[in-house]
Design goal:
Helix content: 10-25%
Number of strands: 17
Radius of gyration: 24 Å
Distance between the termini: 57 Å
Number of domains: 2
Amino acid sequence: MRYIDGKPLNKYRRELRQQNRITLDEAVKLFRPLAEGLDYAHRHQVIHHDLKPANVMIEGDTPYLIDFGLAAQIRTSVTRVSKAITSKSGTLVYMSLEQWEGEPQREQTDQYALGVLLYEFLSGDVPFLSDNNDIMYRLVTQKPVPPMEGFSDTVNRALAKERKERFATCVEFIDALNSNGSERVSPPDDSVKPTASDTPSPTADAHKAGSRMVLPVKGVEFPFRWCPPGTFMMGSPASEVDRKDNETLHQVTLSRGFWMLEIPVTQEMWESVNGNNPRYFKSSKNLPVERVSWEDCQKFIEQLNAHLAGTPGTPSGYRFSLPTESQWEYACRAGTTTAYHFGNSLSAKQAHINYNMRQTKAVGSYPANAWGLYDMHGNVWEWCLDWYGTYPSGAVTDPTGPDKGSSRGLRGGGWYCLAGSCRSADRDYFGPSYRNYSCGVRISLVRVE
Protein backbone atom coordinates (compact mmCIF):
# COMPACT_ATOMS: atom_id res chain seq x y z
CA MET A 1 0.00 0.00 0.00
CA ARG A 2 1.08 3.60 -0.43
CA TYR A 3 2.69 5.56 2.38
CA ILE A 4 0.11 7.38 4.52
CA ASP A 5 1.39 10.72 5.74
CA GLY A 6 -0.89 10.84 8.75
CA LYS A 7 -1.23 10.26 12.48
CA PRO A 8 -2.75 7.49 14.60
CA LEU A 9 -6.27 7.87 15.93
CA ASN A 10 -5.26 8.61 19.53
CA LYS A 11 -2.98 11.49 18.49
CA TYR A 12 -5.67 12.85 16.16
CA ARG A 13 -8.16 12.72 19.04
CA ARG A 14 -5.86 14.75 21.28
CA GLU A 15 -5.71 17.45 18.62
CA LEU A 16 -9.51 17.49 18.31
CA ARG A 17 -9.85 17.73 22.09
CA GLN A 18 -7.59 20.78 22.16
CA GLN A 19 -9.92 22.33 19.55
CA ASN A 20 -13.03 21.28 21.53
CA ARG A 21 -14.24 19.13 18.62
CA ILE A 22 -15.01 15.86 20.41
CA THR A 23 -18.65 15.56 19.32
CA LEU A 24 -20.96 12.87 18.00
CA ASP A 25 -21.04 14.61 14.62
CA GLU A 26 -17.24 14.46 14.46
CA ALA A 27 -17.28 10.81 15.53
CA VAL A 28 -19.82 9.80 12.87
CA LYS A 29 -17.87 11.65 10.19
CA LEU A 30 -14.69 9.82 11.18
CA PHE A 31 -16.02 6.35 11.96
CA ARG A 32 -18.42 5.78 9.07
CA PRO A 33 -15.62 5.26 6.49
CA LEU A 34 -14.00 2.82 8.91
CA ALA A 35 -17.28 0.94 9.26
CA GLU A 36 -17.68 0.85 5.47
CA GLY A 37 -14.13 -0.51 5.09
CA LEU A 38 -14.74 -3.21 7.67
CA ASP A 39 -18.03 -4.24 6.07
CA TYR A 40 -16.27 -4.49 2.69
CA ALA A 41 -13.71 -6.84 4.22
CA HIS A 42 -16.45 -8.83 5.95
CA ARG A 43 -18.31 -9.30 2.66
CA HIS A 44 -15.12 -10.91 1.42
CA GLN A 45 -15.04 -13.20 4.46
CA VAL A 46 -12.13 -11.40 6.16
CA ILE A 47 -12.06 -9.93 9.67
CA HIS A 48 -9.38 -7.49 10.73
CA HIS A 49 -8.97 -9.06 14.18
CA ASP A 50 -6.73 -6.30 15.65
CA LEU A 51 -8.55 -2.95 15.68
CA LYS A 52 -6.86 -0.42 17.96
CA PRO A 53 -5.87 3.29 17.72
CA ALA A 54 -2.44 2.50 16.25
CA ASN A 55 -4.12 0.68 13.34
CA VAL A 56 -6.27 3.65 12.34
CA MET A 57 -4.29 6.38 10.59
CA ILE A 58 -5.76 9.80 9.81
CA GLU A 59 -4.43 11.62 6.76
CA GLY A 60 -5.99 15.07 6.58
CA ASP A 61 -9.54 14.24 7.67
CA THR A 62 -9.59 10.78 6.04
CA PRO A 63 -9.28 7.64 8.20
CA TYR A 64 -7.38 4.61 6.91
CA LEU A 65 -7.60 1.12 8.35
CA ILE A 66 -4.12 -0.44 8.35
CA ASP A 67 -2.20 -3.51 9.51
CA PHE A 68 -4.16 -6.57 8.47
CA GLY A 69 -1.31 -8.73 9.78
CA LEU A 70 -3.64 -10.68 12.07
CA ALA A 71 -6.54 -10.78 9.63
CA ALA A 72 -8.10 -14.16 9.01
CA GLN A 73 -11.00 -15.78 7.23
CA ILE A 74 -14.22 -15.52 9.17
CA ARG A 75 -15.03 -19.22 8.99
CA THR A 76 -11.74 -20.31 10.58
CA SER A 77 -10.79 -17.44 12.86
CA VAL A 78 -10.48 -18.75 16.40
CA THR A 79 -8.13 -17.46 19.10
CA ARG A 80 -7.67 -18.09 22.79
CA VAL A 81 -6.15 -15.81 25.40
CA SER A 82 -4.54 -18.03 27.99
CA LYS A 83 -3.66 -17.24 31.58
CA ALA A 84 -0.02 -17.71 30.60
CA ILE A 85 0.02 -14.27 28.97
CA THR A 86 2.36 -12.07 30.93
CA SER A 87 3.08 -9.15 28.58
CA LYS A 88 1.02 -5.99 28.71
CA SER A 89 -0.77 -5.42 25.43
CA GLY A 90 -3.02 -2.50 24.61
CA THR A 91 -4.77 -4.79 22.12
CA LEU A 92 -6.40 -6.77 24.93
CA VAL A 93 -8.75 -3.92 25.84
CA TYR A 94 -10.30 -4.06 22.34
CA MET A 95 -10.99 -7.80 22.42
CA SER A 96 -14.52 -9.15 22.57
CA LEU A 97 -15.83 -11.86 24.83
CA GLU A 98 -15.59 -14.45 22.07
CA GLN A 99 -11.92 -13.61 21.53
CA TRP A 100 -11.15 -13.99 25.22
CA GLU A 101 -12.95 -17.34 25.37
CA GLY A 102 -11.57 -18.74 22.12
CA GLU A 103 -14.93 -18.88 20.35
CA PRO A 104 -15.33 -18.54 16.57
CA GLN A 105 -15.22 -14.93 15.46
CA ARG A 106 -17.36 -13.20 12.87
CA GLU A 107 -18.21 -9.71 11.63
CA GLN A 108 -19.51 -8.65 15.03
CA THR A 109 -16.07 -9.31 16.55
CA ASP A 110 -14.62 -6.37 14.61
CA GLN A 111 -17.75 -4.41 15.47
CA TYR A 112 -17.03 -4.84 19.19
CA ALA A 113 -13.52 -3.42 18.73
CA LEU A 114 -14.94 -0.56 16.66
CA GLY A 115 -17.34 0.13 19.52
CA VAL A 116 -14.46 0.27 22.01
CA LEU A 117 -12.62 2.70 19.70
CA LEU A 118 -15.70 4.91 19.48
CA TYR A 119 -16.29 4.75 23.26
CA GLU A 120 -12.67 5.82 23.76
CA PHE A 121 -12.95 8.58 21.14
CA LEU A 122 -16.02 10.09 22.82
CA SER A 123 -15.07 9.61 26.47
CA GLY A 124 -11.28 9.55 26.55
CA ASP A 125 -11.25 6.14 28.24
CA VAL A 126 -11.84 2.49 27.37
CA PRO A 127 -14.75 0.58 28.96
CA PHE A 128 -12.53 -1.94 30.74
CA LEU A 129 -8.87 -1.65 31.70
CA SER A 130 -6.48 -3.58 33.92
CA ASP A 131 -2.79 -4.52 33.83
CA ASN A 132 -3.76 -7.92 35.21
CA ASN A 133 -5.05 -10.30 32.53
CA ASP A 134 -7.22 -12.30 34.94
CA ILE A 135 -8.91 -9.12 36.19
CA MET A 136 -9.29 -7.86 32.63
CA TYR A 137 -10.98 -11.12 31.65
CA ARG A 138 -13.43 -10.86 34.55
CA LEU A 139 -14.24 -7.24 33.66
CA VAL A 140 -14.99 -8.08 30.03
CA THR A 141 -16.99 -11.19 30.81
CA GLN A 142 -18.88 -10.13 33.93
CA LYS A 143 -19.15 -6.35 34.20
CA PRO A 144 -21.67 -4.18 32.30
CA VAL A 145 -20.35 -1.40 30.13
CA PRO A 146 -19.83 1.68 32.35
CA PRO A 147 -22.42 4.37 31.52
CA MET A 148 -21.06 7.40 29.70
CA GLU A 149 -22.70 10.79 29.26
CA GLY A 150 -23.18 12.16 25.78
CA PHE A 151 -24.59 9.30 23.69
CA SER A 152 -27.34 6.72 23.82
CA ASP A 153 -27.39 2.94 24.26
CA THR A 154 -26.22 2.53 20.66
CA VAL A 155 -22.60 2.03 21.68
CA ASN A 156 -23.63 -0.36 24.44
CA ARG A 157 -25.34 -2.57 21.87
CA ALA A 158 -22.16 -2.76 19.81
CA LEU A 159 -20.38 -3.77 23.02
CA ALA A 160 -22.87 -6.46 23.97
CA LYS A 161 -21.36 -9.58 25.52
CA GLU A 162 -23.17 -11.89 23.14
CA ARG A 163 -22.24 -11.52 19.49
CA LYS A 164 -25.81 -12.08 18.31
CA GLU A 165 -27.02 -9.04 20.30
CA ARG A 166 -24.83 -6.63 18.33
CA PHE A 167 -25.71 -4.95 15.04
CA ALA A 168 -25.73 -6.95 11.82
CA THR A 169 -23.07 -4.75 10.24
CA CYS A 170 -20.65 -2.01 11.29
CA VAL A 171 -22.39 0.55 9.07
CA GLU A 172 -25.71 -0.26 10.73
CA PHE A 173 -24.02 0.49 14.06
CA ILE A 174 -22.75 3.90 12.90
CA ASP A 175 -26.06 4.74 11.22
CA ALA A 176 -27.86 4.04 14.50
CA LEU A 177 -25.44 6.38 16.22
CA ASN A 178 -26.03 9.02 13.56
CA SER A 179 -29.77 8.91 14.25
CA ASN A 180 -28.88 10.37 17.64
CA GLY A 181 -26.68 13.02 16.09
CA SER A 182 -28.25 15.82 18.10
CA GLU A 183 -26.54 14.43 21.20
CA ARG A 184 -23.08 15.85 21.83
CA VAL A 185 -20.21 15.07 24.09
CA SER A 186 -19.35 18.16 26.11
CA PRO A 187 -18.14 20.74 25.76
CA PRO A 188 -20.52 21.48 22.82
CA ASP A 189 -18.69 22.33 19.61
CA ASP A 190 -20.44 25.70 19.40
CA SER A 191 -19.82 26.74 23.00
CA VAL A 192 -16.07 27.34 22.75
CA LYS A 193 -14.48 28.97 19.72
CA PRO A 194 -10.69 29.11 19.41
CA THR A 195 -9.31 32.61 19.43
CA ALA A 196 -6.55 33.97 17.23
CA SER A 197 -4.34 34.75 20.22
CA ASP A 198 -3.01 32.73 23.15
CA THR A 199 -3.59 35.79 25.36
CA PRO A 200 -7.24 36.62 24.63
CA SER A 201 -9.38 39.29 26.17
CA PRO A 202 -10.86 37.67 29.29
CA THR A 203 -14.26 39.30 28.97
CA ALA A 204 -16.08 36.71 26.84
CA ASP A 205 -16.82 33.00 27.20
CA ALA A 206 -15.33 32.16 23.81
CA HIS A 207 -11.73 31.09 24.30
CA LYS A 208 -9.76 27.99 23.51
CA ALA A 209 -9.52 25.60 26.45
CA GLY A 210 -6.29 26.26 28.30
CA SER A 211 -5.81 29.79 26.95
CA ARG A 212 -3.47 31.69 29.27
CA MET A 213 -4.02 35.09 30.90
CA VAL A 214 -1.63 36.75 33.35
CA LEU A 215 -2.87 39.38 35.79
CA PRO A 216 -0.29 41.47 37.65
CA VAL A 217 -1.43 41.97 41.24
CA LYS A 218 0.69 44.25 43.40
CA GLY A 219 3.78 43.45 41.37
CA VAL A 220 3.25 39.67 41.33
CA GLU A 221 1.99 37.75 38.31
CA PHE A 222 -1.12 35.60 38.73
CA PRO A 223 -1.36 33.24 35.70
CA PHE A 224 -4.79 31.83 34.81
CA ARG A 225 -6.01 29.19 32.37
CA TRP A 226 -9.39 29.20 30.65
CA CYS A 227 -11.84 26.39 31.45
CA PRO A 228 -14.66 26.43 28.87
CA PRO A 229 -18.32 25.72 29.63
CA GLY A 230 -19.30 22.09 29.26
CA THR A 231 -20.77 18.91 30.67
CA PHE A 232 -18.89 16.10 32.40
CA MET A 233 -19.37 13.14 34.72
CA MET A 234 -18.44 14.17 38.26
CA GLY A 235 -17.45 11.55 40.80
CA SER A 236 -16.08 8.09 40.06
CA PRO A 237 -17.37 4.81 38.63
CA ALA A 238 -17.76 1.84 40.95
CA SER A 239 -14.81 0.13 39.26
CA GLU A 240 -12.29 2.89 40.11
CA VAL A 241 -9.51 1.76 42.44
CA ASP A 242 -9.52 3.55 45.84
CA ARG A 243 -13.01 4.94 45.20
CA LYS A 244 -14.92 6.29 48.22
CA ASP A 245 -18.65 6.18 48.88
CA ASN A 246 -18.96 9.99 48.71
CA GLU A 247 -18.04 10.08 45.00
CA THR A 248 -21.44 9.30 43.47
CA LEU A 249 -21.12 9.47 39.68
CA HIS A 250 -23.49 12.10 38.27
CA GLN A 251 -23.73 14.48 35.32
CA VAL A 252 -22.78 18.12 35.85
CA THR A 253 -23.18 20.98 33.38
CA LEU A 254 -21.21 24.18 33.85
CA SER A 255 -23.00 26.81 31.77
CA ARG A 256 -20.24 29.40 32.04
CA GLY A 257 -16.54 29.16 31.54
CA PHE A 258 -14.12 30.41 34.18
CA TRP A 259 -10.45 31.17 34.71
CA MET A 260 -8.52 28.88 37.06
CA LEU A 261 -5.19 29.82 38.60
CA GLU A 262 -2.52 27.87 36.75
CA ILE A 263 -0.76 26.91 39.99
CA PRO A 264 -1.67 26.78 43.68
CA VAL A 265 -1.39 30.19 45.36
CA THR A 266 2.29 30.61 46.22
CA GLN A 267 3.73 32.09 49.37
CA GLU A 268 4.81 35.10 47.30
CA MET A 269 1.28 35.62 45.97
CA TRP A 270 -0.26 35.33 49.43
CA GLU A 271 2.25 37.70 51.02
CA SER A 272 1.84 40.31 48.25
CA VAL A 273 -1.88 40.56 49.05
CA ASN A 274 -2.14 39.83 52.77
CA GLY A 275 1.23 41.12 53.92
CA ASN A 276 1.86 37.95 55.95
CA ASN A 277 3.11 34.45 55.27
CA PRO A 278 1.55 31.76 57.50
CA ARG A 279 3.55 28.94 55.91
CA TYR A 280 5.28 26.13 57.80
CA PHE A 281 7.78 25.29 55.04
CA LYS A 282 10.18 28.18 54.45
CA SER A 283 12.73 27.19 51.81
CA SER A 284 11.23 29.21 48.93
CA LYS A 285 8.48 31.74 48.24
CA ASN A 286 7.64 29.63 45.17
CA LEU A 287 6.30 26.90 47.44
CA PRO A 288 2.52 26.76 47.74
CA VAL A 289 1.16 28.66 50.70
CA GLU A 290 -0.17 26.33 53.43
CA ARG A 291 -1.51 26.54 56.96
CA VAL A 292 -4.38 28.66 55.60
CA SER A 293 -7.97 28.02 56.59
CA TRP A 294 -11.06 28.40 54.42
CA GLU A 295 -11.83 31.58 56.37
CA ASP A 296 -8.28 32.88 55.72
CA CYS A 297 -8.84 32.25 52.01
CA GLN A 298 -12.04 34.29 52.05
CA LYS A 299 -10.18 37.28 53.50
CA PHE A 300 -7.44 36.84 50.89
CA ILE A 301 -10.03 36.80 48.10
CA GLU A 302 -11.84 39.81 49.56
CA GLN A 303 -8.62 41.82 49.35
CA LEU A 304 -7.98 40.55 45.82
CA ASN A 305 -11.41 41.67 44.68
CA ALA A 306 -10.90 45.07 46.27
CA HIS A 307 -7.72 45.39 44.25
CA LEU A 308 -9.21 43.94 41.05
CA ALA A 309 -10.59 47.19 39.62
CA GLY A 310 -7.15 48.78 39.65
CA THR A 311 -5.30 45.85 38.04
CA PRO A 312 -4.30 46.49 34.39
CA GLY A 313 -6.12 44.23 31.95
CA THR A 314 -8.64 42.94 34.48
CA PRO A 315 -11.85 41.61 32.97
CA SER A 316 -15.14 43.41 33.42
CA GLY A 317 -17.86 41.47 35.22
CA TYR A 318 -15.53 38.93 36.87
CA ARG A 319 -14.50 38.39 40.49
CA PHE A 320 -12.03 36.18 42.33
CA SER A 321 -13.47 33.21 44.19
CA LEU A 322 -12.68 29.77 45.45
CA PRO A 323 -13.72 27.23 42.80
CA THR A 324 -16.73 25.07 43.56
CA GLU A 325 -16.05 21.36 43.86
CA SER A 326 -17.56 20.83 40.41
CA GLN A 327 -15.40 23.56 38.87
CA TRP A 328 -12.31 22.14 40.54
CA GLU A 329 -12.93 18.57 39.33
CA TYR A 330 -13.90 19.73 35.83
CA ALA A 331 -10.68 21.77 35.58
CA CYS A 332 -8.60 18.92 37.00
CA ARG A 333 -9.99 16.39 34.53
CA ALA A 334 -9.59 18.71 31.52
CA GLY A 335 -11.69 16.37 29.39
CA THR A 336 -10.43 13.08 30.88
CA THR A 337 -12.51 10.41 32.60
CA THR A 338 -9.71 8.41 34.21
CA ALA A 339 -8.77 8.35 37.89
CA TYR A 340 -6.11 11.01 37.30
CA HIS A 341 -5.73 13.39 34.40
CA PHE A 342 -2.59 11.41 33.56
CA GLY A 343 -4.54 8.12 33.29
CA ASN A 344 -5.51 5.39 35.74
CA SER A 345 -2.26 5.49 37.70
CA LEU A 346 -0.09 8.18 39.26
CA SER A 347 3.63 8.09 39.98
CA ALA A 348 6.06 10.29 41.91
CA LYS A 349 7.37 11.47 38.52
CA GLN A 350 3.97 12.98 37.71
CA ALA A 351 2.99 14.57 41.01
CA HIS A 352 4.38 15.51 44.42
CA ILE A 353 2.93 12.69 46.51
CA ASN A 354 3.89 10.16 49.20
CA TYR A 355 4.80 11.04 52.79
CA ASN A 356 8.47 10.24 52.10
CA MET A 357 8.62 13.62 50.34
CA ARG A 358 8.57 15.27 53.80
CA GLN A 359 7.40 18.71 52.61
CA THR A 360 5.82 20.70 49.77
CA LYS A 361 7.63 21.40 46.51
CA ALA A 362 7.90 24.46 44.26
CA VAL A 363 4.71 24.85 42.21
CA GLY A 364 4.85 23.80 38.57
CA SER A 365 7.58 21.19 39.10
CA TYR A 366 5.58 18.42 37.42
CA PRO A 367 3.73 18.12 34.08
CA ALA A 368 0.51 20.10 33.61
CA ASN A 369 -2.82 18.68 32.48
CA ALA A 370 -4.30 19.26 29.02
CA TRP A 371 -5.50 22.75 29.99
CA GLY A 372 -2.15 23.86 31.37
CA LEU A 373 -2.97 23.49 35.08
CA TYR A 374 -0.17 22.32 37.38
CA ASP A 375 -0.25 20.41 40.68
CA MET A 376 -3.88 19.34 40.46
CA HIS A 377 -2.71 16.06 42.02
CA GLY A 378 -0.63 16.27 45.19
CA ASN A 379 1.53 19.02 46.75
CA VAL A 380 -1.25 20.66 48.85
CA TRP A 381 -4.94 20.13 49.40
CA GLU A 382 -6.95 22.99 47.89
CA TRP A 383 -10.01 24.56 49.54
CA CYS A 384 -13.27 24.71 47.56
CA LEU A 385 -16.19 27.08 47.96
CA ASP A 386 -18.89 24.52 48.82
CA TRP A 387 -20.16 23.27 52.10
CA TYR A 388 -19.34 19.57 52.09
CA GLY A 389 -22.31 17.30 51.45
CA THR A 390 -23.73 14.30 49.59
CA TYR A 391 -23.80 14.50 45.80
CA PRO A 392 -27.15 14.40 43.97
CA SER A 393 -27.90 11.23 42.05
CA GLY A 394 -29.22 12.98 38.94
CA ALA A 395 -27.96 15.58 36.48
CA VAL A 396 -27.39 19.12 37.79
CA THR A 397 -26.34 22.48 36.36
CA ASP A 398 -23.88 24.88 38.04
CA PRO A 399 -24.02 23.18 41.47
CA THR A 400 -22.65 25.05 44.50
CA GLY A 401 -23.14 22.39 47.15
CA PRO A 402 -25.49 22.35 50.15
CA ASP A 403 -26.98 25.56 51.53
CA LYS A 404 -25.42 24.93 54.93
CA GLY A 405 -23.08 22.59 56.72
CA SER A 406 -20.23 22.26 59.18
CA SER A 407 -17.29 21.52 56.85
CA ARG A 408 -15.90 22.86 53.60
CA GLY A 409 -14.54 20.68 50.79
CA LEU A 410 -10.92 20.21 49.78
CA ARG A 411 -9.51 18.64 46.65
CA GLY A 412 -6.31 17.34 45.08
CA GLY A 413 -4.49 15.52 47.88
CA GLY A 414 -1.25 16.61 49.52
CA TRP A 415 2.48 16.00 49.54
CA TYR A 416 2.12 13.29 52.21
CA CYS A 417 -0.73 11.41 50.47
CA LEU A 418 -0.64 8.16 48.58
CA ALA A 419 -1.88 8.31 45.00
CA GLY A 420 -5.42 7.12 45.77
CA SER A 421 -6.12 10.24 47.84
CA CYS A 422 -5.03 12.47 44.95
CA ARG A 423 -7.52 11.20 42.34
CA SER A 424 -9.60 13.68 40.34
CA ALA A 425 -12.76 12.58 42.18
CA ASP A 426 -11.32 12.26 45.68
CA ARG A 427 -12.88 14.50 48.34
CA ASP A 428 -11.88 15.64 51.81
CA TYR A 429 -13.39 18.16 54.20
CA PHE A 430 -12.62 20.15 57.34
CA GLY A 431 -14.19 22.92 59.37
CA PRO A 432 -13.77 26.43 57.88
CA SER A 433 -11.27 27.47 60.57
CA TYR A 434 -9.03 24.40 60.18
CA ARG A 435 -5.34 25.04 59.38
CA ASN A 436 -2.67 22.50 58.50
CA TYR A 437 0.66 22.43 56.68
CA SER A 438 -0.99 20.33 53.96
CA CYS A 439 -3.87 22.73 53.21
CA GLY A 440 -3.41 25.39 50.53
CA VAL A 441 -5.58 27.13 47.99
CA ARG A 442 -6.13 27.73 44.27
CA ILE A 443 -8.38 30.60 43.21
CA SER A 444 -10.64 31.08 40.21
CA LEU A 445 -11.92 34.09 38.33
CA VAL A 446 -15.64 33.72 37.68
CA ARG A 447 -18.17 35.74 35.76
CA VAL A 448 -20.87 37.51 37.77
CA GLU A 449 -22.64 39.48 35.04
